[in-house]
Amino acid sequence: MAKRRFSGLASWLELRFWHHQRNAIAAAIAFYTCLPIPLGWKLEFEGIAKLAPLVGIFLGGLLGLVDWGLGLMAMPVLTRSALIVGLSIAITGGLHLDGAIDTADGLAIPDANKRLAAMQDSLVGAFGTMAAVMLLLLKTVALSELVDDRAFALMAAAGWGRWGQVVAIVRYPYLKASGKGAIHKASIQSAVALIPGAIALLGLSLLQVWLGGDRWLVGVGMALGGSAIAILTPAWFNHKLGGHTGDTYGAVVEWTEALLLCLLTALAAARPA
Fold this sequence. Notes:
The chain is mostly helical and about 270 residues long. The protein has eleven helices and no strands. The mean pLDDT is about 85.
């Protein structure tokens, strides 16, 4: 009898664990994307930032699938790349790009004490516009230069970009008393939150190496370059602002994605013909 009760308790706990994981994943998708979530699912937002890299990998895979379909239609690679970059903005609702724009406007202010106020201004300034144009150009052109393994590149860029966001949350102070980013900082204090995303992203690189041939160079570049950019980008914003906000979290995602795509383009060009 006791053994049966223990087995029943273990099954109940296991069921609750998986329900919690499902609700957390659903909350992460609802927060970071515009994708629909079943109405009956409960959303548990606490600590969802640690799932952001996994959401990024999922989004990259989804974009890669769309890109593959467009390739079957014989759409030119530059047009495909522009559509994929535009679709990535649509799926995320421009969440991260908006943060990059506001951050650029804030950093353009010479007086460091007035930068946060400028970032909160809803009007888009000249520097924010230039940052948006540069990001979209870098992503589109870099992606258009990648002929092979485009889905891997999209997954790596989106995943490492969001892992960099978790680095910013864990490592640096939050500069505002409220805002979307405050809930992440309040619920994540330990570097343990970096582990799930790092494992998934390193697994993505190992898959590239396992596939063999000359893919090892890109696979290693994804791991070393992606992690380095994802660590250095939030460090730079912290240096300029003395901490982070929800806007800079978005800027970390966007600039890490763009820079990693540029790096992967260079690595792809260095592969033997």
